[in-house]
Structure formats: C-alpha cells, structure tokens
Amino acid sequence: MAITKKAPTGYRCSECGWTAVKWVGRCGECQAWGTVVEVGAASGPATKASAVTTPARPIGDIPVSESTRHPTHVAEFDRVLGGGLVVGAAVLLAGEPGVGKSTLLLEVAARAAREGRNVLYVSGEESAGQVRLRAERMGALEPRLKLAAETDLGVVLAHLAAEAPDLVVVDSIQTISSGAIEGSPGGVSQVREVAGALIQAAKATGTPMVLVGHVTKDGSVAGPRIVEHLVDVVCQFEGDPHSPLRLLRALKNRFGSVDEVGCFQLVEAGIEEVPDPSGLFLTRTDEAIAGTCPTITLDGRRALPAEIQALVAPSALANPRRATSGMDSARVAMILAVLHRRVGVALAADDVYVATVGGARVAEPAADLALALALASARADRPVRKGLVAIGEVALSGAVRPISAIGTRLSEAARLGFTHAIVPAGVADAAREASGGKVTVLGVETLADAVRAGLQPE
Fold first, then answer.
1. Does 127 belong to an annotated binding site?
2. Which GO terms describe its cellular component (predicted)?
C-alpha cells in the first residue's frame, strides 16, 4: 500500500506576511497576537502565462489624464492630498471614534455634490436618518448627494453599479461584510476581502473612493496592515477630545507629499477649515505676562506658531511637582537641569507647571529655547520682550544649536507680526534674509546669552 505524503505546510501572519515553520501565538515581526495562521504549500505546476489583454506601452505614451486630480473644494483636505483626489484613487481616513471623521467626509461629499458631481455616501455605522440629521445641521442637503445605509458588500457594489457616482465615501470599512467570507465584520479576513473588492471597483471605474477606518488603542489603523498597502493614500485625523482643533496629516501618499498638515475646527454646525491657525495657538493680549514665550514649530512642511507657558511656585513638598501638558516631560526635565547647571536659574525647590496654548502638541527640539525662556521668565517674574519669538535647540552643554527650515519659520513669524527673534547664531544670517527686514534677528551662542537678551530689563 502506497503511503501518501502530506503536503508541507507553513504559517504566515495575516497582518504583515511574516512566515514561520511552526505556529506561534505572537507574530515575530509586527508583534500582533493571534494573527499567525496555517497556510498550505503550493501544489501542482506553476501558474501558466495568460493572454495579454492590454499591451505594454512606452511610458511617454501614457496619457496624463489618467492621473488627473479633482479638487474636493475643502482646501485643507486638498492640501494634504496634494491638490485633490486622483481618478480611481483609494483613500483611507483613520482616526479615533468621535474625532470627526464622518463630519469631515460629509462636508467633503456635500461640497463635491454642490459642484455638480454625483456622490454616493455609504453609511454602515449610522442609519440614514441619523446621517440626514447631521447633514441638515451642516447645511449639506444636496440633490446630487445620494445616501445608502448598507452593511453588505454585495449590496454596496450593486449601488456603485447603479448610481455610477463620481465620488464614493464608505463609513466605515469595519462595518461592511461579505457573505462569501467567514468571520464577523471587522475581522481580518472580512476587512481584507471588503477592502480588496471596493478598491478593485474604484480602479475599474475610475471613481475616487474614501474609506473610513478606526484605530486601535496604540493609534495604529485597525485591521490587517495589508489594507494600508492596498490603498493609495492613508490619512490620520487626530485631535484632543477637550479641544475643537483637529489636524489631518498623510501617513502615505502615492500621488504627493506626506509633509502637509490640514487644520480644522469642530463647531456646533459641523466642521470648519482653519487656514490660519495662529489665533488658536497664541494668546492675543497687550499686557506682558511673565512665563510665556512664543515659538514657531514645523509640522511636516507647515510652520505653526505655538505659545509655551510656564508657572513656577514655591513648593511645600519634599519632592516638588513637575506637571506638563502638550510637551514631553523628559524634555522639560532636561531644560530644567540645563537652566540650573549652565545659567544658574535654580528651580529644584519649586513646583513647575508647563503647558501649551490651544491644545497644541509641541515635540520638536526647536522649541527648547522658548521653553527655557518661559521657565526663566516665570522664575524671575519678568516677561520676555514684547513681540519676541524664540527658536532653537538647547544642548546639554548650554549651547544653542542650529535647527532646520529657519527661513520658513521666520517668514511665518514676520507674517504674524513678531518684531524680534532669538535664533541660533549659526542660522542668524539666513533668518534675517527670510524675514525681509521685518524682524530684528539676534543670534545667540549659549542659553545664558538668550536669557539675558530675551527677558525685559528689571
């Protein structure tokens, strides 16, 4: 009796594709739990060549119209996309629940319909009545905006074939399921199947499609990572639940840069664009207040102002408090140590509180100089000079190190009306040229020089 050998098998992670010879509970590449599944080895002959349906063409003969962009008429959204939606592009918009993804895309859909385009909005999370109420509040009741509340993939594809829309919004991909695949909606196999079918339909018809996706607790897009590889653009919509400010940034963009950031503000009537967010991040007052210092941060390629506030008070505790909001606590502790050791500003026995205005998140080292000036100003109870902005990285030695894109930062400072700027000495000449003579630039070598120059005289 002949013994039939069992075909060799292996194991593969459904999230990232990592392979192993035996089953393990946790993927060795992406560290995801429960994603390693058994896959059989390929049997039979290799795939045979098929007939060519579309012959290859010289790259210079490919028409540019196949990559034409269509603006969404939401300027901040178009900024992040690189000018608009490309024909047949698949865009994944991810964000935490309640951050405003549905509100943003309903505004995008309404403006596209207002410009004469046929738009199909597929809602899998909310009923048609709920979406209609939001649209009425936002003023988005447009005749060309069609709404379908469906959760079955086959029905959604039928809607696409029947309506032949110019733009499709699917909210969200985790709620759509396919009857041909086992598993609950939102599972790995379901999300992969649904995403693949919708993206294939978008490519076949040339219809731009925006898919809404949720994020996990660690901030990554929920579902298999293969979805991020299938789509053309991955956007992240983020914001503090206690602040109306929302930021849209691209994590992946096959048609443009990922360095642009879009600013929005949630209001009672929906969502508004914020082309100039300086009013959200700066305190407008004629009175000089000790413990505050503005800076210009760089988020991608966009220069954004930020105001750092510090409060120093005598402590009655053996271990004084250190509280931060909007800044890295380790960075604040480092600047405190440099101020104490290199400048002689003693803060070891005081409670120190540091915060940013408007819920801004400041993480880059270029804000070190403004943080140090705010702390020194609060400790001496002397405001910084009026109209001053500070930009620079502080080293452990007390030196002020050069930073990138000084021209972009100083141009924004001049536009906002700042009259004085303290920058690293190594980039002072470039800063003066970028400001066009509107800002008096002072280059400093050390933090001690910056503190002496930045604070108002007693």
1. no
2. cytosol
